[in-house]
Amino acid sequence: MLDKTAGHNRPGFNGPGYDYDYLIQDDRVHQSIYTDPAIFTAEMTHIFGAVWVYLAHESQIPKNDDFITTKLGLRPIIVLRDSDGVIRALYNRCTHRGTTLCRLEKGSAHIFRCPYHGWTFNNTGKLRNVPWPDGYASDFKDSKFNVAQVPRVESYRGFIFGTLNMDAPSLDDYLGPVKGPIDEWLDRHPGGKIAYCEANRLMYRGNWKLAYDNSCDGYHVVFSHRSLLDMENRLVNEADKGMSFYKGRPDSAPMYMKYFGHGHHFKDKRPNMEIKPGAMWAIEGPHPGMEHYEAELRRRFSARADEALDLAASEPVNINVFPNLSILGNHIQVIEPLNHYETNTIWYGTAVVDDEGVWGDALPLINALRMRTQEGFPNFGEVDDLANFEEIQRGLAAFEDEWVYMHRGMDIPGRISGDADGVITAPATDEMFMREYIKEWKRLMQTEPNIQIKREP
Length: 457
Ligand code: FES
Ligand SMILES: [Fe+2]
Hints:
Elements: H1 20-23, E1 28-30, H2 32-35, H3 37-46, E2 53-57, E3 66-72, E4 75-81, E5 87-91, E6 106-108, E7 111-113, E8 120-122, E9 127-129, E10 152-156, E11 159-163, H4 171-175, H5 179-187, E12 194-204, H6 208-214, H7 221-224, H8 226-236, E13 256-261, E14 264-268, H9 279-282, H10 290-301, H11 305-312, E15 317-321, E16 325-328, E17 331-339, E18 342-352, H12 363-373, H13 376-395, E19 403-405, E20 417-418, E21 424-427, H14 432-445
Antiparallel strand pairs: 1-19, 2-11, 3-4, 3-6, 4-5, 7-8, 8-9, 10-11, 12-18, 13-14, 13-21, 14-15, 15-16, 16-17, 17-18, 20-21
Helix pairs in contact: 10-11, 10-12, 11-12
């Protein structure tokens, strides 16, 4: 049968704008949302310009004057703690001719001097001076010469977000029930906090949403990550390590996924474990070098060793905060769109912070072991995913074949349940989370954000 909607006269593309009701349907989405540069450009306003975007973690800028450079969509940003300790997100853009002010990944600075003509700015964004001011007929008192900044910057338990949209809800309301899993994830650590380690950056040639589509996908695991599963099981000669709970019949395993609204979702694999100290460590996959640290922690702590080992083990959760933050095991993954077909994924390991000194001089041992457990997935698992994202992007170049399906779990009575506060629960291999977040994407693409910037007076 011929598909008459294929080709350039398809209904979603008539007239001046895009018909998002056509492009996003209940069970499928149009390939152009991944391949069309004009849709990508619109996303930088309607998605990344409209919602609370994850920017940085407070542990990356622990002291006054510390900064890191990042992006808000495509906008280059310096996230910093100014000399008075205020966390700000400055546009990394000189007000003279637009040059980026800072080209370092991170550092400490109370002023930024533009490399082009030497204008200098305080780390509040205020212009401090310009070389040879006599050459200007006017002075520089006007606030328009102060660096632009993101008008709303807030943290949730160390995670720093910013939004340009004055109509966005509070960060607290934006996060809503996804705060529950974030709290649980943090609260298993001493003092309820973690610190970021260095970044591992992986670029792929595919649209940014392919990574977000995958962040809760339990359907692909045994196929995409077969080599990782085989290796984990072969090395320990037991069939229940690492991600093995996806084998067999994953939908009848006790794990599940939830959709929380505002595009956020969560996959909880913890119900696969027993509830007891050492349970998380018991399912940890094998990692070269772990034996030494485990033996040392068992020798030093005997009864409490299981607790220490659980701190080193990856927590089996995927917590995804739309549009660009995922907490995966003990990792943080940040999705950074570059253009419609290229994306960076930035992976940060996390370390235990022990301000109270509960673990004494064993803390470096716990963290060294925790680093071992965080090496496996980015090296052996993420590469499988990135290869698939690139191959999806290649496949979608066959653009007359227009639709991408996400209907797994749909219309099956009793499979998906919703509760009164709008949280939706489904089995771990469903595509429910994709259908729900992409509905929110559609709503945002059809809504005009109230984008503003601010400057120091
Ligand atoms: S562009 Fe920055 S001083 Fe000229
Ligand atoms: Fe994966």
